[in-house]
Amino acid sequence: MNLLSFGYPIYESYLTWQISKYPSKAPKHVAVILKETDLLDLKSMEKLQLALLEFRKFKVDLVSIYVDILKDDLALKTELISGIASRLEESFSMLPQGTGYEIYGHEGEVTTRREGKNFFVYVSLGLGGREEITRAVLEVLKDVKQGSVRPEEIDEKHLESRLLVKQEPDIMIRSGGQKLSDFLVWQSVYSELYFTDVNWKEVRKIDLQRVIRDYQKRQRRYGR
Q1: Are 173 and 31 within 8 A, CB to CB?
Q2: pTM, whole model, 2 decimals?
């Protein structure tokens, strides 16, 4: 039987029921990779709100979002980042109380932050994984130069402490049939990957629920 033939509301209810049977198997940290064009209008922001509310509904604790900024001109890039950050801040202000967020630009500077209790959203505007690791290495080298740490004391945990996002995502989502980016390249080494041909502006609740249900059915091997 194809539940879609009875309409999306019934299928949404069915997916919700399936997910609720195994709440402990739902992801706690979800990463979403977007393009700059995915957040340039009101509809796109509404889709982002929908996604965050849906993830929160299924007990996701943390969502990390990467917005790939394609502009090469520094002035245009800075202006675009400022505009997207302002719209994101306005959009996030309408999320339920207890939602915290941090938005940072392509150089790793925090543009805005709000503390949260039970749900947090990180947004990286143009800062990819390679740049994040380079930034972390430079900070470690500064520690060595200042004498606060010896070279032989440096390990993975020391470097991880300098990363902007320190938690490892359970699943990485890429919409619109796009290839994976280098976002959270260090943190996502054992993450599950989920690709969908659905463009971000066309994402529905059932698409988000399918991600969670698909994750619940996977057997994570963590590189083994």
Answers
A1: yes
A2: 0.88
Report how far residue 28's alpha carbon sits from residue 175's, in angstroms, rounded to the nearest whole number. 20
Query: Do 103 and 210 sit in the same domain of this protein?
Result: yes
Question: Do residues 11 and 213 touch, judged by C-beta distance below 8 A?
Answer: no
Q: Does any domain span residue 18?
A: no
CB 123 within 8 A of CB 67: yes
Structural domain range at position 65: 28-126+168-217
Per-residue pLDDT averaged across 129-138, rounded? 91
Give yes or no: residues 212 and 198 share one domain.
yes
Q: DSSP string covering 20-43, please?
A: HH-GGGS-SEEEEEEEGGGGSSHH
Q: How far apart are CA 25 and CA 124, in angstroms?
A: 27
The secondary element (H helix, E strand) that includes residue 100 is strand 99-104
pLDDT in tens, 11-23: 888 888 888 888 8
As a whole number of angstroms, the distance between CA 128 and CA 183 comes to: 5
